[in-house]
Amino acid sequence: NPNRRASAFGLSFWQSLLAAVAGVASFALVGITSMAGKRGRTTTLTLSRICFGKRGNIAPTAFCWINLMGWEAVNLVTGTLTLAALFAAMGLAESHWITALSLLLFGGLTVVVSLLGQNTVLMMQKWITRTFGVMTLIVVLYLMANANWQVIMALPSGDWLTGFLPAVSVIAAGTGISWAIAGADYSRDQSEKSRPGTIFSSVVVGASLPLILLMFAGILLTAQIPDLASTENPIAAIGKLLPAWMAIPYLAAAVAGIVTIAVLSISSA
């Protein structure tokens, strides 16, 4: 049906891409706080004591802790769904027992990895990110080759005020604005030789490009799975569109990546 919309906000293909680019530009805020981490060599909420004082820092710290633990819950749910999708791709029937097992396994992996220490987690994150990034690019190219471009390009435009602006605000709130409170947490391990401008540009570009790529893939998927956002396990639905030889390693890499993200969220919180 050419009247299906590219997103929950009823945007066209080009509007969705523009909203994605505008929303992830909020990572400039993370870039700014990351520069402070390299100078102070500690976390954002420790550095904020300089601005607010020890007692005054309690309120923003409490708010940020709730935010970060909320993201930890998101990571846990996403990791569980991804692991369940991996089992489904391997031929196991979907069931509540498989979902429960996935929850226990993913939670256990997160705890075990968190005990390995900061340096080990950073090393794992470095290689898992590269592997998952390359595999995501392959998956996006596959989706592009098999997408119904006639349907996608025929999607009608949405309202710029009631559709486009809310979409940008939601993307910005869920990306750069949310992570600005933890920018220094990751850059505190930067080399003393790293320049502030390089840190800023690396954060903004490094965060924006993968997100735009993933959102682009999501736009392609909504044309093939119109009810993607309302499905019980959207990750499993995506996995079903891929051949088994592609779905299994991709989902396995995704699980590993989400585990390290969950560990870093715990550290920041």
Secondary-structure map:
Layout: H1 13-24, H2 27-40, H3 44-47, H4 49-56, H5 58-89, H6 96-114, H7 118-146, H8 149-153, H9 160-174, H10 176-179, H11 183-187, H12 196-224, H13 234-240, H14 244-268
Helix pairs in contact: 1-9, 1-12, 2-12, 5-6, 5-13, 5-14, 6-14, 7-12, 7-14
Can you offer a commentary on this structure?
With 269 residues, the protein is mainly alpha-helical. It has helices at 13-24, 27-40, 44-47, 49-56, 58-89, 96-114, 118-146, 149-153, 160-174, 176-179, 183-187, 196-224, 234-240, 244-268. Helix 5 runs parallel beside helix 13 (234-240) and helix 7 packs antiparallel against helix 14. It is globular and about 55 Å long. The termini are far apart. Mean pLDDT is 82; it is low at 1-6.
The residue ranges in which pLDDT falls below 50 over 5 or more consecutive positions are 1-6
Gross morphology is globular
Task: Give the rounded overall mean pLDDT.
Answer: 82
| Computed structural class | mainly alpha
Number of strands: 0
- State the separation between the terminal residues, measured CA to CA: 45 Å
Largest sheet data: none
Task: Report the β-strand fraction as a percent range.
Answer: under 5%
Radius of gyration: 20 Å
Q: Summarize the amount of helix as a percent range.
A: over 70%
Q: How would you sum up this structure in a few lines?
A:
The chain contains 14 helices and no strands. The protein is mainly α and 269 residues long. Mean pLDDT is 82; it is low at 1-6.
Key terms for this structure?
single chain; 269 residues; mainly alpha; 14 helices; globular; disordered N terminus
